[in-house]
Amino acid sequence: MLYLIGIGLSDPEDVTVRGLELIRSSARVFLDAYTSILSVGKDRLEEFYGRPVELADRDLVEQGDVILAAAQSADVSFLVVGDPLGATTHADLAMRARQRGVAYRVVHNASVLTAVASCGLQLYTFGETVSVPFWDAVSRPSSFLDKLLGNWERNLHTLCLLDIRVREPTMESLLRGRPEFEPPRFMSCSVAAEQLLALLAEVSAAEDNADLLADSDAAELRNRLNRRKQLPPPERLLTVGLARLGSPDERIAACSLADMASRDLGPPLHSLVVPAPRLHPVEAEFLRQFADTEADAALVDASAAER
Amino acid sequence: MLYLIGIGLSDPEDVTVRGLELIRSSARVFLDAYTSILSVGKDRLEEFYGRPVELADRDLVEQGDVILAAAQSADVSFLVVGDPLGATTHADLAMRARQRGVAYRVVHNASVLTAVASCGLQLYTFGETVSVPFWDAVSRPSSFLDKLLGNWERNLHTLCLLDIRVREPTMESLLRGRPEFEPPRFMSCSVAAEQLLALLAEVSAAEDNADLLADSDAAELRNRLNRRKQLPPPERLLTVGLARLGSPDERIAACSLADMASRDLGPPLHSLVVPAPRLHPVEAEFLRQFADTEADAALVDASAAER
């Protein structure tokens, strides 16, 4: 039997009682070590579980043979931070288990997708979740802005999941053919805010040069600009930063997008929320406790008042 | 200190290790007994926790005085099925705690909002969640259909949370002024499907009588009809029923809306999903395992093929 066990958001004690029992009675215990990451290391997990934990990288999970072969003859636990089927890769693992005649069972747990309610915004008024990827020299994906605007137009909140890069091979090691890894990187709310600011600025700058574009490109640009203009300027666009949700040193901050780019919310993991333009009064009242300054509080109040 | 503790989806063992420790060290333990319900009773919880559990009805929670007074001088646990801040009422309790100078802390857990991924649909492509309320002689709310169509147009899945009526006073007891309660009622997937079918049929019937309506009503009706026409007929509209998610006798069924109205998925709790019109191939492949008949499987395949 293959148990897909969610281990929650931050500490070893976040596993469920059922999950812990299954881990302790499994022949082997694997930990997904690349789609997400706990704020604690493997050592603390092993100590708490009283079992050795094998780190599973992308190759091991996506090929799946080691895990599935083990699960064919014994109970195997595959541990996932958050809830187990949040990432497509794990649905894929469950599917391949089934194809090989290995039964699987899911043990659910908390996920950032619901823990985000800690900021006081109602889960029922969140729209589509978006992912904000790290930009680099060759790639600056921006489709998350279009999805965010789609939610905004319908007065829905947007949860932005921020990029995580774990076990990325270095360029040198790829050339040498012997894998060495970059240190793990986690996008902070300030970096996400910077990318969003850059994107909004770029679209504005492009407007000035629209005459130079082919007609079809210009039409698309005008369309994006018109949608973008619904957003208030960055100094008046409310955002909520969430850091280390569910842990004792959880930190939540409500401030403008412009300010978020320079807020330090401490160590990972971070998530960013762009609330709907008009908040329910209860949402605004709850969110206000996370406003650090008078200006932040005024911004929250304005979102409620515009209802 | 007030601990808002999620106890997960179905069994006593679904509490987290941290949650269990806090419950056992609390002076009093309250259980939210009206926004949701575990499939097990208070007795099994008390046995498992080794602590007496006090049922908190809506009045007790919304006034909050008993709970907050207790939390002012000692540790108090307030238990909520699923994740603690999913329902507005609990955000309200946390806010009033804070106003009275009582610190609160949230212990997260699994929620149907993420456990729904067990059917294989990706959480990132769910739109706004909707609630389907029981209809009665005086009220037939239908706004959930408009939200569902909004998701459908954007190729997003819709999770429909189905109504729960716990501790509803009987009409007779209201007249006598002494509260007696109706037996708890839980909406099944088949009842939700019936209401949805009725709603779609009503809109069609109304079309024939549009000439009789005032101009403004007729315009609104035409608008609703046009949006509704995007949906395939009920025999070809794929739906997914989910029953007792996370428990050992979990049941998931993928079939047409027309068929769902006569499927018996067993005891509560149920949730219904209307998948987006075009599924990712991995989603369709996963979902196919929950198709009971050839016709069901063909319907799932068609959703993938239309991509």
Automatic annotation (TrEMBL), chains A, B:
<dbReference type="InterPro" id="IPR000878">
    <property type="entry name" value="4pyrrol_Mease"/>
</dbReference>
<comment type="similarity">
    <text>Belongs to the diphthine synthase family.</text>
</comment>
<comment type="function">
    <text>S-adenosyl-L-methionine-dependent methyltransferase that catalyzes four methylations of the modified target histidine residue in translation elongation factor 2 (EF-2), to form an intermediate called diphthine methyl ester. The four successive methylation reactions represent the second step of diphthamide biosynthesis.</text>
</comment>
<dbReference type="GO" id="GO:0141133">
    <property type="term" value="F:diphthine methyl ester synthase activity"/>
</dbReference>
<comment type="pathway">
    <text>Protein modification; peptidyl-diphthamide biosynthesis.</text>
</comment>
<dbReference type="InterPro" id="IPR004551">
    <property type="entry name" value="Dphthn_synthase"/>
</dbReference>
<keyword id="KW-0949">S-adenosyl-L-methionine</keyword>
<keyword id="KW-0489">Methyltransferase</keyword>
<dbReference type="GO" id="GO:0017183">
    <property type="term" value="P:protein histidyl modification to diphthamide"/>
</dbReference>
<dbReference type="InterPro" id="IPR035996">
    <property type="entry name" value="4pyrrol_Methylase_sf"/>
</dbReference>
<protein>
    <recommendedName>
        <fullName>diphthine methyl ester synthase</fullName>
        <ecNumber>2.1.1.314</ecNumber>
    </recommendedName>
</protein>
<dbReference type="InterPro" id="IPR014776">
    <property type="entry name" value="4pyrrole_Mease_sub2"/>
</dbReference>
<dbReference type="Pfam" id="PF00590">
    <property type="entry name" value="TP_methylase"/>
</dbReference>
<dbReference type="GO" id="GO:0032259">
    <property type="term" value="P:methylation"/>
</dbReference>
<keyword id="KW-0808">Transferase</keyword>
<dbReference type="InterPro" id="IPR014777">
    <property type="entry name" value="4pyrrole_Mease_sub1"/>
</dbReference>
